[in-house]
Design goal:
The chain is mainly beta. It is built from five helices and 32 strands.
């Protein structure tokens, strides 16, 4: 009798909740995707007639001009602003990634931004009775030979369908991976394999994974850290994986204000963990100051040193947007295990981050302060830590954190979304790295600031 009662109760709950418990928070939250065919002048069509593929910028669906902290920026639902190119034909699209959280809110209304409710969702999401309220899929896009994924640091990847026949984007599914809580927003695709990290704040460790193309686990290595391992990016090449271990500590004064009650303590040392992929051996290098690094560019290695080109923050606060990144070279000495930093006086004048490699050079975006907030006024091209060329605009602000670089008729161009500083015009831009006029394609929609972008060449 007890078993029958249990089965009846279970069936009743399952029927009522439709997999998740449905707490009604208000009217269903409505979003709608966008698709617009863009008419171009013949001259512009001719210039981009050899461009074929898809550009996508992923980011949070928030008004960046109302944001007062980095934490708020990462709390918006993931959207993709994209442009399909096909022999001079251009189609603009915007897609709201159908995360479990967003689908839940489309039925039950927006989840209130209340610490108590966040705790309830955090607990019940572990039991699969509520969606992950941090599953926002808003940080980066990963493209492999067969699939494209939307990534977010505290969730698993969402598989996307980027359809070149219909010029549309659709969310396919959230990929479940046993034993993983999250999939790095800076997951790498190298030599047909997927490399990612998952970190555990409570155990203070990082799990480094290698997956096959179809997301089957091939390798795992656990590495202990000195601090809370909230690690946004890591560096990988054929031989080495490197990640930073910087002084992020609990800040109990912020528990009521935010679901990320941590702070950066620049008085403590920083550590750099370098693992040999072949042997699994780990070497740790120590720097006597606390420095924060959001995004890395690349590493170069010789018999004596490892040279890490990265964007360094001497001070950092998740609860502020007033931060300054400097593009520098961090030198890890293999003999002493000590760390030094190479700076360039000109580079230090700018607020640089989101590095993108083109051949042996690096392109970074530059951020300038305004009376209220800030804007991306352009980009710099660096050879090492030396600025080779600047691409700054007084009347244009750019949307993407990182640019993408594609070749048009053999010549490299930065491609990105942008808007005029008076917000009246919005564009897709091709900014040549060589001496040539830029191409601005005006869009009949408002563009929004995003994080990371991708260009998928349909010729390949």
């Amino acid at each position: 009798m007890t078993n029958i009662y249990f089965i009846l109760v279970f069936c009743y709950i399952y029927t009522c909740v439709s997999y998740f418990f449905n707490f009604k928070f208000g009217n269903p939250f409505k979003v709608r995707d966008t698709k617009i065919n863009i008419q171009l002048p013949q001259e512009t069509q001719k210039k981009i007639s050899h461009v074929s593929g898809f550009y996508g910028l992923i980011g949070p669906d928030v008004n960046m001009f109302n944001v007062t902290s980095l934490f708020q920026m990462f709390m918006g639902d993931g959207t993709i602003q994209g442009v399909f190119f096909d022999q001079g034909n251009v189609t603009y699209v915007q897609h709201y990634i159908q995360t479990e959280k967003l689908k839940y809110e489309q039925r039950n209304g927006r989840i209130p931004k209340d610490p108590f409710i966040y705790v309830i969702f955090a607990l019940f999401s572990k039991l699969r009775l509520l969606p992950n309220h941090l599953g926002l899929a808003n940080t980066a896009l990963l493209h492999t030979n067969n699939n494209t994924y939307a990534l977010y640091e505290r969730d698993l990847p969402y598989q996307l369908d980027i359809n070149y026949q219909t010029n549309e984007i659709h969310t396919i599914k959230r990929n479940y991976l046993p034993h993983l809580q999250s999939f790095s927003g800076h997951t790498k695709y190298r030599n047909g394999m997927i490399e990612t990290i998952d970190y555990d704040v409570m155990r203070r460790c990082v799990d480094y994974y290698i997956f096959s193309e179809d997301l089957k686990e091939e390798y795992k290595k656990t590495i202990k850290t000195h601090y809370m391992p909230i690690i946004h990016d890591f560096v990988s090449n054929n031989k080495t994986i490197l990640f930073t271990d910087v002084p992020i500590v609990m800040d109990f004064t912020q528990i009521i204000k935010t679901t990320l009650p941590v702070k950066f303590d620049k008085t403590k040392p920083s550590y750099f963990h370098v693992m040999d992929k072949v042997t699994g051996n780990l070497i740790t290098y120590t720097y006597d100051k606390g420095i924060y690094m959001f995004h890395h560019s690349h590493i170069v290695e010789d018999d004596t040193n490892i040279y890490l080109y990265t964007c360094v923050y001497d001070d950092f606060n998740y609860l502020s947007i007033d931060i300054k990144g400097s593009y520098r070279c961090v030198v890890l000495n293999k003999i002493s295990k000590k760390v030094s930093i190479i700076r360039n006086e000109e580079t230090e004048q700018y607020n640089l981050d989101f590095p993108v490699i083109y051949k042996d050079k690096t392109v970074l975006r530059n951020l300038v302060k305004l009376e209220k907030g800030s804007r991306i006024n352009g980009f710099v091209l660096c050879d090492g830590v030396h600025i080779e060329k600047k691409y700054f605009y007084d009347d244009i602000s750019f949307c993407g954190g990182d640019p993408n670089i594609i070749e048009i008729d053999g010549n490299p161009h930065i491609c990105t979304l942008a808007y005029s500083i008076d917000f009246k015009k919005h564009y897709f831009c091709f900014i040549p790295l060589h001496d040539e006029d830029p191409i601005f394609i005006e869009l009949p929609v408002k563009t929004n600031v995003g994080f990371h972008s991708i260009f998928i060449d349909n010729h390949k």
